[in-house]
Amino acid sequence: MKKHSLSKKLFSQAKKVIPGGVNSPVRAFRAVGGNPLFIEKAKGSRIFDVDGNSYIDYVLSWGPMILGHAHPRVVAALKKATEKGTSYGAPTSLEIELAELVLKVYPAMDKVRMVNSGTEATMSAIRVARGFTGRDKVVKFEGCYHGHADGLLVKAGSGATTFGVPDSPGVPKSYAQNTITLPYNDIPALTRMVEKEWRKIACVIIEPVVGNIGCVLPKPGFLEALRKLTRKHGIVLIFDEVMTGFRVSFGGAQAYYGIKPDMTCLGKVIGGGLPVGAYGGKKEIMSMVSPEGPVYQAGTLSGNPLAMTAGIETIKELLRPGLYAAMEKRSAMLEEGLKDAAKRAGAKTRFYRAGSMFCTYFTDTDVRDYGTAKKADTGKFSRFFTGMLERGINLAPSQFEAGFMSLAHTEKDIDATVTAAYEAIKKI
Q1: Which residues does the annotation mark as catalytic?
Q2: Which domain holds residue 232?
Q3: How many domains does one find in the chain?
Q4: Could you check whether the bond before residue 291 is cis, i.e. omega within 30 degrees of 0?
Q5: Model confidence over 366-387: pLDDT tens digits?
Q6: Tens digit of pLDDT for each residue in 256-280?
Q7: Residues 405, 392 share a domain
């Protein structure tokens, strides 16, 4: 059994000065039990906690460490950038360089605005879509998380659609009523709602692959139907690729599925581990953004030179030939290994993968939306999570979060992970 005495002590100390002892809720291990790990350092495919334990890491800071932790190229560039200053509050050539790289990879965008987080990106994109269309309502899908902006913290109840039910205290009902929630992968419900309400709908925002209830793939025809309906009725289609960008494929889910959205939100990878988000889209839409247009959005640290540097070096590294093929090979190897481990251990699981993001559900039901994801056995997952952690494998501390592969993971790492999975599941 690994010792976690110092992590436990730090957690007790943190709870006195930080709400719940953490600065983001899922870190508290509430869904799996126990105390969170406090991390001291990370390198390559591994993280190291304050008690000296080492773990093969599939959280990867919730996705951005696609090159692995502390990649030498990124670290070296950041050291040089830091010596020049950490923030200017003024334009730099780095912002142009990263913007040009992003637009090259995501040609659906003509212009892009840098922000500091995925929440800022989605919140700002929706504001711009409203300004562009002159409409107020937003359509989102059940189980898709787009950050913690008020209008997006809305859940769906029973039935095909739910109008304006806040999912958190502090969100005014009057504000939430402008959000319409639909079931993911339900083309008939989508069609009925859009045909009925399109005159009021500014935009539809969606995770093209849902990464915040695990990893739920779009069924054939769903994204195509969404694109057709939004185009027909002048509704702005926003792809939230904060998680899927550079993960589902180099060009994100939009490249993989061949769908061209009107606006795209990015984050995670384009910051190389530093706080970054971005939103962009067609020229006529982005011309609405201040100071070019009337829709206001600002940020003192937007385009921060350190974040821009990390993003530039990460994307340049990803441009090297053969890297995505190598990562796909390792991701597929992990998929086959985990499926086989569950089968040999006699467990009923469903495994889903989109590029280098994945999830194992403890269920014998196909997962296609929020409702079927919630049928997974969270108790079994909690015991699996704990068993994997004790065997040196770090997974996201929730059944409803995706895992991630990096270019730093080796076949030896994958073999160790599969062995640990078999042992942990067999014990369950």
Answers
A1: 145, 240, 268
A2: 72-318
A3: 2
A4: yes
A5: 999 999 999 999 999 999 999 9
A6: 999 999 999 999 899 999 999 999 9
A7: yes
